[in-house]
Nucleosome assembly protein 1-like 1
Amino acid sequence: MVSDAMNGCLCLMVVPGFVRLPSARQLTVQMMQNPQILAALQERLDGLVGSPSGYMESLPKVVKRRVNALKNLQVKCAHIEAKFYEEVHELERKYAALYQPLFDKRSDIVKAAYEPTEEECEWKADEEEELTEEMKEKAKVEEEKKDEEKEDPKGVPEFWLTVFKNVDLLSDMVQEHDEPILKQLQDVKVKFSDPGQPMSFSLEFNFEPNEFFTNTLLTKTYKMRSEPDENDPFSFDGPEIMGCTGCTIDWTKGKNITLKTIKKKQKHKGRGTVRTVTKTVPNDSFFNFFTPPDVPESGDMDEDTEAVLAADFEIGHFIRERIVPRAVLYFTGEAIEDDDDDVSTHHSLCVMEGEEEGEEENDPDYDPKVGRRAYC
Ligand SMILES: *[C@@H]1O[C@H](CO)[C@@H](O)[C@H](O)[C@H]1NC(C)=O
Ligand SMILES: *[C@@H]1O[C@H](CO)[C@@H](O)[C@H](O)[C@H]1NC(C)=O
């Protein structure tokens, strides 16, 4: 636990996103894919007399007793680690307040509430981006042509829609019929829970007044838990997302794209006549994101629900950790290439042998199980 936390600190210092070690389970999966490790493991297993638990069995009673004391210490460590993450949450809140004016300015530029000055628009091109004179000339002509076509665009048109379409995780959710609505999305914000409140974060989607629904704000809240499970304290690995709630979308009449009507032929049992009935059924849409399934109190849920929630938690986490902080880089596409680099950088700093580069696609921290860790 202690070294785990220290690794967390190391990562905190060297990388901007807060990243911790992959869970033991992730590690196991990676190791099991490595033939050399597998072979070595088999050798060990072949030579092993008795299992680890067998070893514990073989210990004298007095020693076993003391090992239990060690495990109790370990439980206490898990509780201290939980406190550590509560402070991380506080630190995130504090820094969120420092980022917010910049995010607000981003939003103002995107929605044309503010026109950046000449100075603010200066940007030194990367070496890679430096073009030959000839190419520059060509680009200029094309740009002028484009400007002529699109008359006086306001702000950065389709900023968030483009971001969403550039990120696989989100573009999978965005249907064609969602696009006209998402064009009106002006800002996405992250709000953290207040001190003393149960740990959570909300995603806020601000829309321009539009013809589709009367809300201008849609929200999605993720409840988190940062305390060891009493029944399984050693699995504690940082805060987990425990559940989420959406919001009611007040669709204007006939605009509810999360519904579709289908025609069904129905046969009258007695008379044998056939008639056509129309039925409304759910339709695929990004906006289903705001009506997630409930997490049952009992914790028992069917596989479908679990899969939907696991994907939902991953998306919520990704929007919070990556998209909102660096939206412009997803708009330009720069962040998409960088993500692979990030994986190898983080991992080489934080961990560990037997790790392959660029293995996980987007989020190095993704743990597909429900109740996943929220940091890393
Ligand atoms: C339902 O989804 C289909 C395909 O995604 C789309 O073509 C259609 O317009 C949607 N229906 C409504 C009523 O929005
Ligand atoms: C829109 O459709 C959803 C189902 O996808 C339904 O739950 C909701 O009540 C509908 N809202 C309106 C205003 O029709």
Notes: The CA atoms of residues 165 and 172 lie 8 Å apart. Residues 251, 256, 258-259, 282 surround 2-acetamido-2-deoxy-beta-D-glucopyranose (ligand 2) (CB under 6 Å). The radius of gyration is 26 Å.
